[in-house]
Amino acid sequence: MLRIARFALPACLCVLVGACSIIETPRILRGNRVDSDLAKELVVGTSTKKDVTSLLGSPTSHATFDDNEWMYISETTHTRIGLTPGVLRQNVMVVDFDQAGVLRGIKRLNEDDGRSVSVAGGATASPGSEASFLQQLLGNVGRYNVGGLGAGGDNSPGGGVGSSQGNRTQ
Predict the structure, then answer these.
(1) Which of 72, 88, 124, 164 is most buried, most CB within 10 Å of its CB?
(2) 82-95 burial, b for 16+ CB within 10 Å, e for fewer?
């Protein structure tokens, strides 16, 4: 009996430790991760938009008000408790071009460059969303339809009471 207990305890510990790696969630790469060796091939002042696209692919995003600023955004995530995503790493590479489409500069950003943004409270009023009392009162005038019935009083086309195909008693 003592021999079985000596063998069972280490076996149970091995199974428990092995199960920990099964529980770990996989890491998921999202976005367009830029290989640093490929980025080194870009030369400021000589590389063009076409060169950047052929080396790095299409950008993840363009700047809102400047089409000459491209962003390659990537992040590595994993699933946390409650299936919420947790960000492990986030990298942003900003590529600037001049008006002629020639590379002007490359800038790398990470989590430390991020800023916390607070959401403004309240709601923005949109014109026309509030109807006046008179609009509410008269809003459906002309739209009233008695149960979807036709002019003759029943749902069949041309089968109303006043029509020639009206209901006849036999």
Answers:
(1) 72
(2) eeeeeeeebbbbbb
Are 33 and 51 within 8 A, CB to CB?
no
* Residues present in the chain in total: 170
Cα 159 from Cα 30, distance rounded (Å): 63
CA of 57: how far to CAs of 22, 52, 53, 72, 107, in Å? Answer: 35, 7, 4, 9, 17
Burial class of 154 by CB neighbour count within 10 A (0 to 12, 13 to 18, 19+): middle
- Residue 48, pLDDT > 50, answer yes
Q: What does the DSSP 8-state code read for residue 52?
A: H
Structure tokens at 154: 């029943």
Which pair of tokens denotes residue 35?
Answer: 């290989």
Residue 100 carries which side chain, given as an amino acid letter? A
What is the value of pTM for the model shown? Answer: 0.53
Question: Tokens at residue 128, please?
Answer: 């026309």
Mean pLDDT within 80-101: 85
Confidence of residue 102 (pLDDT cuts 50, 70, 90): very high
| pLDDT attached to residue 47 | 92
Q: What is the pLDDT of residue 157?
A: 52
Between residues 56 and 16, the one the model is more confident about = 56
Residues 72 and 63 sit within 8 Å (Cβ to Cβ): no
